[in-house]
Amino acid sequence: MEWLDIIFTIQGVIAVLYFYVKYKQSYWEREKVPYVKPMFLLGFAGGGFTDKRPLKDRLHSVYKELKAKGKFGGLYMFTSPTVMFTDAELVKAVLIKDFQYFDDRGIYINEEKDPLSAHLLSLSGSKWKNLRAKISPTFTSGRMKMMFPIICEISKEFEKTFQTEAAKDSTVEIKDLLARFTTDVIGNCAFGLECNSLKDPDTEFRKYGAFAFSKKGHHSFRHAFLFTFPKIGKFFNMMFTNPILAEFYLRIVRETVDFREKNNVTRNDFMNLLIGLKNSQDETEKITFNELAAQAFIFFLAGFETSSTTMMFCLYELALNPDIQEKTREHINQVLQKHNNEFTYEAMMDMTYLDQVINETMRKYPILTNIMRNCSQDYKIPDSNVVLKKGLRVFIPVYGLHHDPEYYPNPDKFDPERFTKEAIASRPQCAFIPFGEGPKICIGIRFGMMQMRVGLVALLQSLKFSPCAETEIPIKGFSRHAQFLTLDKGIQLKVERM
After folding, report:
1. How much of the chain is helix, strand and coil, in % rounded to 5?
2. CA-CA distance, 182 to 302, in Å (whole number)?
């Protein structure tokens, strides 16, 4: 009888759990909102086990399915209901007009166990507002102008390294070279360190930067779990940041801060501002060492991979579209002639067609394929009877919007003319959001655009890019599980000196 009791108890527990999950995953049906049918228990996340397509394609399928049913719809992250907005005006409401309802990205934070998780990207409320106000002065146009010569100096080594690789073999794998360039730029401007990864690809900074976005360094399933169940993560004192990365970056920041303070070193860079805030006599301005380290950490991670990957896709498209590549090169030369053949900050800012090329790259290949927000209070969706409850997660489908033929006819075509002033004015504001939008728009836009412009100008002035036998057309090697749009392997292009 005891065995029968145990069996019946187990069956009872399984039945209760089954009906609990089914009930949780019937939320949108009860709310009479169109939704994507979830996988039992795992919801949308379960698709990663059975669907071999990259995350961007799985999300795009959801976007198209829901858009066919209306301006928004539901899906499930595990058992948690999530709403996806498929209309650019509703996206504008979330990111700008009704921002006060969606000021939380819902990123897991554990300040005690994982101090690097408490960065500007993850904070919300007054903590975020105060920190953003303190850090914003780093990213003014005046500060960018001060950092410009540093990036230009690194770009000279960048061009030389590219030419050396092209001389060895006309077929060049560009992904790693671009990542080494942005590693040196960010390492220099954020930490004041000469990383020298262009000369030596095995430097510590490059090694740990690459590790951060590898399968071992970026545990996508764990991150998805902590996004969905932050209370469980807090209960078990889990870390969002990989412990190996945390140890390295905390050590580097500590060594950098100690050296600068002991030797009274000042530079026109991000680290200098953070140290100034740490040592401020004004208690309202002051930040702790852990807060300083978290901001330096996210600046490095957010800056080097996003920019290098965008540049990679840009060169790929220019190689496939030689007419656009030549037009970009001619435009660069014309602007330089207008500025006495000197590549100044003002000359860079005049390169409007180069900006169109970069923007079209970010439209077609948005590194951040989606944006997440949490409802901080109940919110009635405009022109509907649906009320999003406090704590419910909102999905902004960046990739879906950027590939929607309603906003971008023939979306798979690479066409920089989509970003003339007239074309931009003809579309809704939030149909193009590679950096987000509204109060939480990426604080480093100016810096990211500057390093991409400088890097591309350095290359296009002296090098020509074209497809080779090893070039994938179209690209098939997108990473399946990475939260960012990236490739599991690099891109091979033919590179020739002009």
Report:
1. 55, 10, 35
2. 11
384-410: per-residue pLDDT in tens?
999 999 999 999 999 999 999 999 999
Q: Where do runs of H (alpha helix) occur along 267-412?
A: 270-278, 289-320, 322-338, 345-349, 352-364, 398-402
Q: How far apart, in whole angstroms, are the C-alpha atoms of residue 351 and residue 312?
A: 19
Q: Report whether 193 contacts 256 (CB < 8 A).
A: yes
User: Measured between alpha carbons, how far is 287 from 25 in angstroms, rounded to an integer?
Assistant: 43
| AA letter at 174 | I
pLDDT in tens, 149-165: 999 999 999 999 999 98
In contact, 102 and 394? CB cutoff 8 Å: yes
Q: Which residues of 270-305 are buried (b: 16+ CB within 10 A; e: fewer)?
A: bbebbbebbeeeeeeeebeeebbbbbbbbbbbbbbb
- d(CA 448, CA 455) in angstroms, rounded, equals 11
Nearest to 72 by CA among 401, 498, 409, 467: 401
- Tell me the pTM: 0.93
Instruction: Give the separation between CA 90 and CA 101, rounded to whole angstroms.
Output: 13
